[in-house]
Amino acid sequence: MRIGTNITLSTAPHRVAEDVAAAARAGLDSVWTNQMPGHWDPLALLAAAGPTRGVSLGTAIVPTHPRHPVLAATEALTVAAATGVPLTLGLGPSHAWWITDQLGLPYASPAAHSAEYLEIVGGLLRGEHVHHRGRFFTVDTELAVAAPDVSLLLSALGPRMLAVARDLADGTVAVWVRPALVADVLRPALRDDQRVVVQVLAAVTSEPDVLRERIARDFVAVESMPAYRAVLDRAGLQGPADTLVVGTEEEVARELRAFADAGTTDLVVSPLGSEGAHVLEVAREVGSATMAG
């Protein structure tokens, strides 16, 4: 299991190269970022890393609706060429509260929309001339630029989205899940050679309940988002605080190993608290052990 971490959403672009280099020095495999309303653009933020060594880069995720698929493919190839390292383009339909309520865009049939989007992006990343006429997009173009090592993931938790990820992407990326859901739902829905990327909030701490209370308060809105509510209910969880990996060093290591045993290929660890380096070191050791085994 490969271990990565996130660039925080408050990271200024001029700090990205330093943060990516620090992750490489720490022995991590990857650095990721995502899109949140009012924050930096994720692909532009990764491009700010410049020429990079020792780690791969990824987005988890870039929302599909605000970006035309041709633009998304072009940006991904640009980032891969600018940094010189493998890029994982994680895409997803996001949520109606942002796409419609804040941006004024229609949010209908996210699985069908995602399928068309991936057909176009995937073809362009493979260097094909894409002829597509569908419900959401009409495209007849090709790109004159290319870059190696760009892979494609789809944020997928339910059966319809997982089917799209299986057929049109290199795997899925998920958040607010436990190892049991990876083993019982995500892994069986995909091909054996596909990736399962899971994002977790983690900390080595003597006060796990304090962190759970904080996350329950800070992320209470997650509980009412339909896609997340469905996956939390499927796992018998009340909210995102139930997915935290927190406790002693031994407890955290055991939890992280459970993700590997469940079929997680990449674990993206977002440290909580002031001892972020400690939990990342525990995760790195777990990742190295699972790869060696």
Describe the overall structure:
The chain has about 290 residues and is an alpha/beta fold. It has one domain (about 1-290): Luciferase-like domain (TIM Barrel, Alpha-Beta Barrel), CATH 3.20.20.30. The chain has eleven helices and eleven strands. The strands form two sheets. An eight-stranded parallel β-barrel has the order 1-2-3-4-7-8-9-11, surrounded by seven helices. Strands 5-6 form a two-stranded antiparallel sheet. Helix 2 links the parallel strand 2 and strand 3. Helix 10 crosses helix 11 (about 275-290). The longest helix is centred in the last third of the chain and has 17 residues, at about 275-290. The protein starts with a strand and ends with a helix. About 45% of the residues are buried. The model has no long low-confidence stretch (mean pLDDT about 95).
